[in-house]
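Researcher: Before we compare anything, I want clean individual predictions. No alignment, no superposition, just each chain on its own. First chain goes here; please echo the sequence and then give the structure tokens.
Model: Echoing the first chain and its structure:
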Amino acid sequence: VPEWIEVFMATQQVGLYLTPINYHLTSPEIGYIVENSEAKLFIYGDRYKDSAEKAMELIGFHKSAAYVVGEAGAVQPFASLYEG
């Protein structure tokens, strides 16, 4: 997926950490990783939006700091980052 390449390259360029999360994990496990990595941004594919959005709910992650690649769910579409 081209967006993931963009995310990877952008994080490297500005010196951020990228924490890939295995798609086999449950929502509580995803939430644990997001919370304990002290993530400031959460980007996920629309294929996994149910588990990702449940994980955000479990840990109280602000939806304003989350983006979905593909069909937008309860958060902003990744494409909106190009708008400004």
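Researcher: Okay. Second chain, same rules.
Model: Second chain and its structure:
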Amino acid sequence: MSRYKSIKEIRLEESYLVVGWNKDTGKISQKVVEFLNNAFSSEMIGELEQKGFFSFSGVSVEDDIAQFPFSNFYYIRDKNLILFLSDQPDYKPYEFLNLVLDVSEKYFSVKEIYTVNGLISLSPHTSVRKIYTVFNDRDFLDRLRGYDIELLTWEGTPAISSYLLWLAKER
């Protein structure tokens, strides 16, 4: 059984992957990917197979319509940017994340991966918003100098994006 429903191979020398997860904190990553999709008229280029990764309880109902989990790749042509928007898997997370990396490498020549996540904060809604970063490559920090971005010094259970970046670094 194929682990993806459809993949359109994009011939690129290199591309960049932005990963967003549905239903993350504040739907931040979902909204960022949806914004990029709309702002740059992306094209859907792939869909991963959901069988074996999601439970039946992953189906929700919105406006009387069943919403099934999905994992889609999109392409922004003039930016060499690949977007991935997905529900987080209920089962076999390492297999799922390796599948994302396999497809990104084999079909889209992804060079760098960026993940977007929301963060729960005790700050009131009237306070100035901050953008934090976590990285797995020291050179990335140097490229961020000059932007108003803070390093996140947090310890605890890693999010799925942390595992994705760890697996990518191990390759």
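Researcher: What stands out in the second chain?
Model: The chain is about 25% helix and 25% strand. Additionally, The longest strand covers residues 15-21.
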